[in-house]
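Long-time lurker. I teach an intro course on protein structure, and each term I like to show students one example going from raw sequence to a predicted 3D structure in token notation. This year I'd like something fresh instead of my usual example. Would anyone be willing to generate the tokens for the chain below so I can use it in lecture? Attribution to the forum is fine with me.
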Amino acid sequence: MKVFNIVIAGVGGQGVLMASKVLAESALASSMDVKQNEVHGMAQRGGSVISFVRIGDQVHSPVVMPGTADILISFEPLEALRHLHYLKPKGKLVYNNVTINPSTVASGLATYPTDVETQIAKGCPDAHGIDALQIAKEAGNAKAVNMVMVGSVMKGLPIDATVVEGVVREISRDKGAEVNLAALRGGAAAA
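-- Reply from a regular --
Happy to contribute to a lecture. Here you go:
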């Protein structure tokens, strides 16, 4: 299998790193080689967070180069727009359409662009926005947005969905496994 590149982008505290861990562990459980890398930036202050997951028969580097990502998962629309350049020409984008104001917007130093979703549509013909927050709430916990976003791309992954579910169950254990699984399935249904 050639290398399959996934980029996950969001804001600190949204669970980007947990989503990345679920995907990497699912690839390992599927006997694939996997490399993972993340950039925390100002994550603790609500800043941008990006994570790369590369899976295949043999993966040499954890870094996804611009123009090579098969899938971009974004937990926030502006982060989707900011990281579109990672997608390859026929790459797929799934993003949470719930906005989170960056610190510069919250402090009044900048304004959130009003046409983010229009710009996303122009930049990626295969872009899909979902209300991951509402799906997570319906699953039982607003913090399960990360599992909704993982579920939203499961059909496009070279990993069996039952493997991903098993990894989510194992990682979650006593910390809300059923909620996380419901969020995962809700994301899959929304995609």
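Some talking points for your students: Helices lie at 16-29, 77-82, 103-106, 116-123, 132-139, 145-153, 161-172, 177-190. The longest strand covers residues 87-96.
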